[in-house]
């Protein structure tokens, strides 16, 4: 045969099998374009020009490209295996008619070249268009700072994508000719007609599957400190993946066989045929169904977690347009100067001045708390921490308190008395803050010491306060004591009383909460002239201003950090969804051709068309939605571990993650149902046509 004939035959084969080749070509083009986009973004030189968070973005994208490459290889091999399975009869017939295996191999090489050429051309065009669209979405997602990221065409990234697809297509070709080499033409022709043995019950594999699943779920619930046990998260993932494959391969068959032994259930028309069919379906499709379940789990976890990070951004931002902290400002003189500068340069709605203070008190044993005396400090001491140790004649640690006094609304909700609690199930920030609320004359005590147990009142610097609550914080030293009062005014009064009695003044820390009455951009520029926001600023001996917090800057930082995670989550989620769609498509296509023959047999033995359709429909629904149910269960049990990981990344709200997870369940179920309806329509058209 001439080469021209081979080219023509290869082209006709692709055209004849277009139902299988068109999705295969689409997925090859999509994988190449997605690979190019993510590699191009990771190589974008403009990331290095950004001020905040930019160094993490290329790394994230680069790792994302590795994940994309792995899944591209898997999905292309998976698609190719389905095509080969449907073409076995064709290869057997060609072999019997005189075409040698080397000729078939040459034919398959030409078909692979056709696929490669179409993929390279369409992939390059699609990649460039998709990159432009993604660039717009990405810059909008990251916020105002991302406008500095220009649109760049990366030739190297395109070459990388072409090489990845070319190598994968060549590997699938080698896999094809290997199967042809070891095949028998008679078996190829009659393989689909060959009777199947009922699968055996693999009890050991079923037990192992359950053990893996329970181990993975257990790690999710009981490993609470992921900062020290991050490897446990990956171990849990591996356990669940292995357990899923074991249960789909053996466990579900074991369950179906148990139902088959139950005569009252099995010997009913609506159960008899569907249950028998299910056993054989699970034997053939267990790996595909398990893969669908795992991919669906990855979609849910990836999208829900990154969506939660984005949704939680507002909760991590300052409540005010600008915040200035001035430390060790005795009597607040420097803070007053800063207030005057703000009034000159910025139009403000409100400026709240809050004060915290540090006091050194003794008398813990008798609870007669009074300031240290001169002899309790080292010679020449000027600051509270210059105290003598107990062995040098100073106050012993069991009779002293290092006291911090604060207004209740300035409690740090991330490091409150809830530190001992599981980070996933912490109270919301507003709930924590509200639990510290006090009225005038009341105090909330936070300490690890037990000396306050049972106390109703606290005598402090000549004033008596009603103890509203004693909050135990076991993460602090027993000498450390935090007191929360109704307002900064009460704190100021206590500081004044302390300074009158102590040889060394209290250490005062001021916070200015500023809300603008003019456009934020203009006000921010004016605020930057008051102090360098990028570093602390010395204002005098021991007095310094912390890095100024501007809400706009904090938001830009958060968007740069979490926006990139969200983008990558959506990108990979889309990749996983397309892979899931393709697996389902080929599964429905294959089963459509297989069930068409069963459809005829079942009718010929006396079943009505309605009964046959009902039996097949129940099988399809069960097989189709089993991976979805499994994915939802996996995601639900992964909730504690993923939630803790998000908490360490800055998401303090379990409610936000819960809402995003529920939204993910609803959204993915709708997508999955649409996929089912579309592929089921194709399935029934094949069955009806052949029937």
Write the topology of this structure.
Layout: H1 3-16, H2 18-42, H3 56-86, H4 88-96, H5 101-142, H6 155-181, H7 185-190, H8 203-222, H9 230-261, H10 263-266, H11 269-311, H12 313-316, E1 322-327, H13 333-345, E2 348-362, E3 370-371, E4 400-407, H14 429-435, E5 442-447, E6 457-460, E7 463-472, E8 480-485, H15 488-501, E9 507-516, H16 520-528, E10 537-538, E11 544-545, E12 549-550, H17 551-604, H18 609-648, H19 654-690
Helix pairs in contact: 1-5, 2-3, 2-5, 2-6, 2-17, 3-6, 3-17, 5-6, 8-9, 8-18, 9-11, 11-17, 11-18, 11-19, 17-18, 17-19, 18-19
Describe the protein's architecture and organization.
The chain is of the alpha+beta class and 691 residues long. It contains 19 helices and twelve strands. Strands 1, 2, 3, 4, 5, 6, 7, 8, 9, 10, 11 and 12 form a twelve-stranded mixed beta sheet that branches. The longest helix has 54 residues.
Give the tags.
691 residues, twelve-stranded mixed β-sheet, 19 helices, 12 strands
CA-CA gap between termini: 38 Å
Q: In one word, what is the shape?
A: elongated
Strand content: 5-15%
Helical content (DSSP H or I, runs of 4+): 55-70%
Q: How large, in whole angstroms, is the Cα Rg?
A: 34 Å
Q: Give unreliable regions as ranges.
A: none
Look at the helices and sheets and give the structural class: alpha+beta
- How would you state the average pLDDT, rounded? 79
Number of helices: 19
Let me know the number of strands.
Answer: 12
Largest sheet: 12 strands, mixed
